[in-house]
Description:
The chain has 11 helices and 13 strands. By secondary structure, the protein is α/β, with parallel strands linked by helices. Helix 6 links the parallel strand 5 and strand 6. NADPH dihydro-nicotinamide-adenine-dinucleotide phosphate binds next to helix 1, helix 5 and strand 5.
Amino acid sequence: MTKRALITGISGQDGAYLAKSLLAKGYEVHGTSRDRETTNFWRLERLGVRGNVTIHSMSITELHSVLHVLKLVQPDEVYNLAGQSSVSLSFEQPLETMTSNVIGTLNLLESMRFFGSRGRLYNAASSESFGDVGGVPAVIGTPFAPRSPYAVAKATAFWEVANYREAYGLHACSGVLFNHESPLRSPRFVTRKIVAAACRIAAGSGETLHLGNIDVQRDWGWAEEYVEAMWRMMQQPEPRDYVIATGVQSSLRDFVREAFACVGLDWQDHVHTDPALFRPSDIASSVGDPRVAHEELGWKATMFMPDVVREMVRHEQAMLAGEEGAPGMPES
Ligand code: NDP
């Protein structure tokens, strides 16, 4: 029988890759967006799957809206990817961040409980909740020490899922994913900003790239590989939470160096670091331990930071050159 999946936040980076991956696995794919009439589904279009998914307007912060869509779709698997996902924006919009991630996840859990759903739930948790790990790869069980409104919201949603799994026997799990990038990353994220600037400068824009703290260390992987991990988690007979990461951390400075080197430039000639752009509280070191995911899900990252940067630059350059099929159209 064809399985039916519902992806909240299908217009985002992960939503688009997940939709493509589930369609290839034979799923009937439904997705939600806050307003399907006005949202720009450029990522789904770029991946060539816009016409193969059914999109519903849903406000994840409104219980009735969530109940309505779940009743209509009756999914076998729900992937909860919707919510304000930017750490920096969360300092400016803490309520929106909290509501969309915390109340949104709770509404899905409550709706599934209300319907006595036998479906499964995947929740997009975040490595940001671990805070600064001091170079020690985080595992499930590493204490959360969130340092941004976004990280607090994601930590709360993580425990909501764990609570509903334990209290009501819901087949619900959280994937605590470390940073994962792609050409479909929103231009508001620093990785895409760096890659786009390096490519423009190489094409002669003459601009200077302004960045905040480039000494922070992150564990960067490739988004397409990470959505495969989401699906594998959902196929487990017993639900449990997993850390998904490459296991390798690199500094933002190295990311910048790599991006400019890919276009034949020395980053130091084009980048200015500005303390005014530092976050109120930042994480110096963030790295995850993917061994349990490898042992239990058979999942392992094959793309590491230099590969990620190289692929992002290749796609960005193709887009600048106006090549057919190049992803990376800016947000509307
Ligand atoms: P995106 O920001 O690309 O997509 C998230 C989607 O959620 C958007 O397309 C939007 O859909 C919806 N959304 C955005 N803001 C709100 C809001 N205030 N209220 C309700 N819905 C909103 O995120 P990614 O695809 O990169 O990530 C998917 C999920 O995984 C997110 O929850 C993110 O926090 C989490 N995550 C991501 C990581 C990463 O490195 N990418 C790492 C760890 C966790 P629309 O406008 O159509 O409603």
